[in-house]
Amino acid sequence: MTSLWLLNARLLDGTGSDPVDGAWLRIAHDRIAEVGVGPVTVGSDPVIDCAGRTVMPGLIDCHVHLAAVDMIHLLDRHPKPVLAAQTFRNMTETLRSGFTSVRDAGFTDYGFRHAATAGLVPSPRLFLSTGPLSQTGGHSDFRPRDDHLPQRPTDGLVHLGHVVDGVDACRWAAREVLRRGADQIKVMAGGGCASPNDDVSHTQFTVEELEAVVYEARARQTYVMAHAYNPDAIKNCVKAGVRSIEHVNCVDESAAAAMAKAGTYAVPTIATYELLANDGTDQGMPADQVEKVRRVLADAYEGLKILLAHKVPIGSGSDVLGAHQSSKALELELKARVLGPMGALVASTRTNAQILGRAEDLGTLQPGRLADVLIVDGDPLTDITVLQERSRLHYVLLGGRIVSAADEISTPTPTRAES
């Protein structure tokens, strides 16, 4: 059996442990077979010399919208073939930017995952929510106030979501999105920035409605992720048994304490606010929505500090839209302002794998894990911005396959390699 060897590495394994110099990894098939330090016999297997580079897990972004090729309210202006092509491009560029797994938080049809698994387009591992669930007038109800018709059905390419009210309707919608290929269910438990009829201070869905969705998710061995900013919405999600709460900018001490006690994950998403606060108007975002973005940005870092102080498990997502799709790695730089570089890296690897329920496969470089690996020119612990430079990502491996490379792989004569 031919193996691929990574030699002379500075190993940052994603567990939070200090980096190890002079490390090596052996990859067999799609998994990490061995990890060690020091001299090792590689025989005639192919080798990547990682001298001067950091070897680390592929990044995971737990809050993306790959089909959001524009601001949400502008998506219907794009011809469907163009929207599909742009979504495929987002998938490929996300992978080549070092993100080997992403959790799509809404709008992306299961067919894109089918195309990826069929090998039709280079893509990260996709964990899709398809259409989010919203109450009437909630964060995924995009009808203007003068529109008296029901929100139009989704078209099989972009799922704007299901607008439902009451326990039975929520139960139906949960079953429907699972039928349509969702890996997890996304609910809008509070108001948002990019919706026309609500505010981030609003609480949406009752605990009973949320509990119905959680029940249906658990019945299918999956879970619920929830959009929420304000403390009341956050606490409702905790009571209902939601696994991860997105954004949480306006979290307070009591809401953070409830999350910590329940073991509920937080997935802060700061990059999108930093970007849209600066150029949201230029991207076509209405002025009132840009103002909401700036309000939640003002709370974002303090909210992250509160979560950290209460030892809430913190994952990571970018939530970038439209022209900002290539800025996912900015999220690590911003989180590092509070969590430090190692904390930001662990949030984007090990903790995100735990949120996905895939910690035995993803997120760390340990024997038995899938070989989703980055080989980086430089040290992200010293300068985390290196992860934003494609030219510094020397290799990206997905399941042991090289999907982006700056160098040829050498095949040495049998020797004893010094690592």
From TrEMBL:
Gene3D superfamilies xref list: Metal-dependent hydrolases (3.20.20.140), Urease, subunit C, domain 1 (2.30.40.10)
Organism: Kribbella turkmenica
Domain Amidohydrolase-related: 54-403
Alphabetically ordered keywords of this record: Hydrolase
InterPro entries: Amidohydro-rel, Metal-dep_hydrolase_composite, Metal_Hydrolase, Metallo-dep_Hydrolase, OTAase-like
Protein name: Amidohydrolase family protein
GO molecular function: hydrolase activity, acting on carbon-nitrogen (but not peptide) bonds
